[in-house]
From TrEMBL:
The keyword Oxidoreductase applies. Belongs to the cytochrome P450 family. Keywords: Heme, Iron, Metal-binding, Monooxygenase, Oxidoreductase. It comes from Streptomyces tubercidicus. Residues 1-44 are annotated as: Disordered. GO terms for molecular function: heme binding; iron ion binding; monooxygenase activity; oxidoreductase activity, acting on paired donors, with incorporation or reduction of molecular oxygen. This is Cytochrome P450. PROSITE patterns: CYTOCHROME_P450 (PS00086). InterPro entries: Cyt_P450, Cyt_P450_B, Cyt_P450_CS, Cyt_P450_sf. Gene3D superfamilies: Cytochrome P450 (1.10.630.10).
Length: 439
C-alpha cells in the first residue's frame, strides 16, 4: 500500500470465498458453563494478577475487547501450544465472523491486526509463499552477521547514558537504551532513514497500545502505512544493501513476488515486532535482575548464562501479553471449552508463561537456572513461529551482558512495584525504567 489509505476491513477476503452466515455468530463467545466474560484492562495494569485470574477461569476464557467485541483468551501452556499449531485454527480475517456481520464497530482500533496484508494474516499456501519469500532474504547468516554492528551500537548507547541522566542522577533506561538499540538495528536492516525512527516508534506505540482512542489509532494506522509505503518506493527506486531492497527483489521459482500491499504489510510487521518486543524484553529483564539481585549474581558466578536470563524473562514476563488474532474455522472444543467458528482468539503468552501445570508451583518465580529454559511459547509455535526470534535473542543477550558489565552497580531508581505499566494489553512491560548507573 503506497497511497496512505487504511487497509479495508475486507482486505483479506477472497472474492470467491464469501463468509457464510453462522446461526448465533453475531456475538460469538465461548460456551463452557456460562459466566460473564472478562474485560481486558486496556492499560495493562496488574498484569500478573490479571493473568492468574484468567488462568484460574480456564484454559480458554471469554473476554471482551475494546468496542465490546467478544473474543476468547487462551491462557494455559498446553492448550495454547495446541492452538498455535492447530490445523483448524486460522489467521486470515475472512474467518472473523464479527468483522463482516456488523458486530465490530466502525474504526475499531484493532482492525489492523486482523486485516494487514502479510504473514501474520495468511494461511496455508498463501502463508507458505509469503514466509518463503521473507526467509529467502532474512536468513540466519544475515542475522549472525549483525552481531558486530549490534555490539557497536550497544557500546555507543552505553557511552551516552551518563549524559542522559536527569538532575537527580537517574537515567530513563527504556528510552535511552532499551528502545534505540532494537529500533536502530531493525531500521538499519530495512534501510529506513534515521529521521523516521522516532515517529515510527510513536506510531507503533499507538497501534500496539490499547488505551488510545479509536480516532488516534486509526490515524496512526493510516500514517504508518503511508510512511512505510514511501520507504518501499524509495528502495524500489534506489535499491541498496538492505532487507527491503532484498524483499523487493525476492521471488519464488515461478516468478511470484511480494505485492505492494504485502511488502508494506511485511515492513509493518518487522518494524513493530522487530523493536517493540525486544524493547520490552530488555526492559523486563533489567527490572527482574534488579528486583532479585541474587539472580544477577548467579550469572556473574557462571551458574547461569545471559542466554538463560533472556529465556527466563521470555517465560516469566513475556514481552507480549495477549496477541491477536486466530479464528477456529469450525466450532472447536479447546481445553474443555466449545469455541464457535469465527470467534477471535488471543494467544495469552504472559498468562501461559506462568502456568503452574507447565512450570510447577513456583511458576511465578523468576529463576535463571530453570530447566529446560526454552520450552516457553513467547515466540509462538507451529507455522507462525516468530522469524525474528534469533535477532531478538542476539540483541537482548548482547545488550544485557554489556549493560551490567559496564555498570555493575546499576539498580532501579524506584521500587519495581511503583513502575507504571505500558498502556496495552498486547505489549507487556513498564512505561518507563528509571535507573541509577552507580550505587
Amino acid at each position: 500500500m503506497t497511497d496512505g489509505q487504511p487497509i479495508s476491513d475486507d482486505a483479506r477476503l477472497p472474492a470467491s470465498a464469501p463468509l457464510p452466515p453462522t446461526p448465533g455468530a453475531a456475538c460469538p463467545a465461548a460456551r463452557s458453563g456460562g459466566g460473564a466474560p472478562h474485560r481486558l484492562a486496556p492499560g495493562g495494569a496488574g498484569r500478573a494478577a490479571a493473568d492468574a485470574v484468567l488462568r484460574e477461569a480456564g484454559a480458554v476464557v471469554p473476554v471482551l475487547l475494546p468496542g465490546e467485541v467478544p473474543a476468547v483468551a487462551v491462557t494455559r501452556h498446553a492448550v495454547l501450544r495446541e492452538v498455535l499449531a492447530h490445523p483448524e485454527v486460522a489467521k486470515s480475517a475472512c474467518h472473523f465472523t464479527a468483522l463482516h456481520d456488523g458486530t465490530v464497530p466502525p474504526g475499531w482500533p484493532l482492525t489492523l491486526f486482523a486485516t494487514v496484508d502479510g504473514m501474520t494474516t495468511a494461511d496455508g499456501a498463501d502463508h507458505r509463499r509469503l514466509r518463503g519469500l521473507v526467509t529467502k532474504v532474512f536468513t540466519a547468516r544475515r542475522v549472525a552477521a549483525l552481531r558486530p554492528r549490534i555490539v557497536e551500537l550497544t557500546a555507543g548507547l552505553l557511552d551516552g547514558l551518563p549524559g542522559s541522566a536527569a538532575a537527580d542522577g537517574t537515567v530513563e533506561l527504556r528510552r535511552h537504551f532499551a528502545y534505540p538499540l532494537p529500533m536502530g538495528v531493525i531500521c538499519e536492516l530495512l534501510g529506513v532513514d534515521a529521521a523516521l525512527r522516532d515517529r515510527l516508534h510513536e506510531l507503533s506505540n499507538l497501534i500496539v497500545g490499547t488505551s488510545g482512542t479509536a480516532a488516534e489509532v486509526q490515524a496512526a494506522n493510516v500514517e504508518i502505512i503511508a510512511v512505510l509505503g514511501q520507504v518501499a518506493e524509495a528502495r524500489r527506486a534506489d535499491p541498496g544493501d538492505d532487507l527491503t531492497s532484498a524483499l523487493i527483489a525476492a521471488q519464488e521459482e515461478d516468478g511470484d513476488r511480494l505485492s505492494a500491499r504485502e511488502l508494506v504489510g511485511t515492513l509493518l510487521l518487522m518494524i513493530i515486532a522487530g523493536h517493540e518486543t525486544t524493547l520490552n524484553l530488555i526492559t523486563n529483564a533489567v527490572r527482574a535482575l534488579c528486583t532479585d539481585r541474587a539472580q544477577l549474581e548467579l550469572v556473574r558466578a557462571g551458574r547461569a548464562s545471559w542466554d538463560d536470563v533472556v529465556e527466563e524473562t521470555l517465560r516469566h514476563d513475556s514481552p507480549v501479553a495477549h496477541f491477536p488474532f486466530r479464528y477456529p474455522v469450525r466450532d472447536l472444543e479447546l481445553g474443555g471449552t466449545l469455541v464457535p467458528r469465527g470467534t477471535p482468539m488471543l494467544a495469552s503468552y504472559s498468562a501461559a508463561g506462568r502456568d503452574p501445570e507447565a512450570y510447577g508451583p513456583d511458576a511465578d518465580r523468576f529463576d535463571v537456572t530453570r530447566r529446560p529454559a526454552t520450552r516457553h511459547l513467547s515466540f509462538g509455535h507451529g507455522p507462525h513461529y516468530c522469524l525474528g526470534a534469533p535477532l531478538a535473542r542476539l540483541e537482548a543477550t548482547v545488550a544485557l551482558e554489556a549493560l551490567f558489565t559496564r555498570y555493575p552497580a546499576l539498580d532501579l531508581a524506584v521500587p519495581a512495584a511503583e513502575l507504571p505499566p505500558h498502556p496495552s494489553f498486547i505489549g507487556n512491560s513498564t512505561e518507563v525504567l528509571p535507573v541509577r548507573l552507580t550505587g
